From TrEMBL:
Entry-linked Pfam families: NusB
UniProt-listed SUPFAM superfamilies: NusB-like
One of the protein's GO biological processes: DNA-templated transcription termination
Residues annotated as domain NusB/RsmB/TIM44: 26-150
Record region (Disordered): 1-25
GO molecular-function terms, A-Z: RNA binding
Name this protein carries in UniProt: Transcription antitermination protein NusB
The keyword Transcription regulation belongs to this UniProt entry's keyword annotation: yes
Family: Belongs to the NusB family.
UniProt lineage: Bacteria, Pseudomonadati, Pseudomonadota, Betaproteobacteria, Burkholderiales
Function of the protein: Involved in transcription antitermination. Required for transcription of ribosomal RNA (rRNA) genes. Binds specifically to the boxA antiterminator sequence of the ribosomal RNA (rrn) operons.
Entry's Gene Ontology cellular component terms: cytosol
Length: 166
C-alpha cells in the first residue's frame, strides 16, 4: 500500500507537561501534614515524630524552619486551632478524618501566624494538600472551612481583598 503525499498524517500527541517542581514550602507542608497525621492517630511526642519526619525522602528539600513551625506550632496550639475551626465545621474536629483535621490545622496555623503568606495562598496550599492526601471532595470542605476562618483570623486582609474585587 502506497501513501500519497497529500494524505494527512495523524497529528502527534502533545508532549505531556513536565510536573512543576514542588516548592520548599509545599514540601514542608506535606511533611508537616504527615507528622500531624501521625500525632493525631498515635498521640506520639512531637520530638519522636519530628525525628521520624526528618528521615523521610525529600526532607532535605523542604523549608526546615517552616516545617518546624507548622509541626510544633500545630501540636502546641491544637486546642486553640480546634477552637477556631470548631466555629466553621459541621461536626467536632475529633470526628474529622485525620487528614482533613491536619490540613485544617495547618491552614488555620498559617492564617493565624504566617503573615508572610497571603491568606488566599494559605487556603490554596491547604486545598492542594487535601487534594493530594485527602478524600475525593475533602478539598471542597477544607476550602469552605478555611475561607470562613480567614474572616476571623485576618479580617482586614480579607476585607481589603473583597473591596479590590468589587
Amino acid at each position: 500500500m502506497s501513501t500519497d503525499a497529500s494524505t494527512p498524517k495523524p497529528a502527534a500527541a502533545p508532549a505531556p507537561r513536565a510536573a512543576k517542581p514542588k516548592s520548599a514550602r509545599r514540601r514542608a507542608r506535606e511533611i508537616a501534614l504527615q507528622g500531624l497525621y501521625q500525632w493525631l492517630v498515635s498521640g506520639e511526642e512531637a520530638g519522636v515524630i519530628e525525628a521520624h519526619m526528618r528521615e523521610q525522602d525529600g526532607f532535605d528539600k523542604c523549608d526546615k524552619p517552616h516545617f518546624d513551625s507548622l509541626l510544633h506550632g500545630c501540636i502546641l496550639e491544637a486546642a486553640d486551632l480546634d477552637a477556631v475551626l470548631s466555629k466553621h465545621v459541621d461536626r467536632k474536629t475529633s470526628e474529622l478524618s485525620p487528614i482533613e483535621h491536619g490540613v485544617l490545622m495547618i491552614g488555620a496555623y498559617e492564617l493565624k501566624h504566617c503573615m508572610d503568606v497571603p491568606y488566599k495562598v494559605a487556603i490554596n496550599e491547604a486545598v492542594e494538600l487535601a487534594k493530594s492526601f485527602g478524600g475525593t471532595d475533602g478539598h471542597k470542605y477544607v476550602n469552605g472551612v478555611l475561607d470562613r476562618a480567614a474572616v476571623d483570623l485576618r479580617p482586614a486582609e480579607v476585607q481589603s481583598m473583597r473591596n479590590k474585587a468589587r
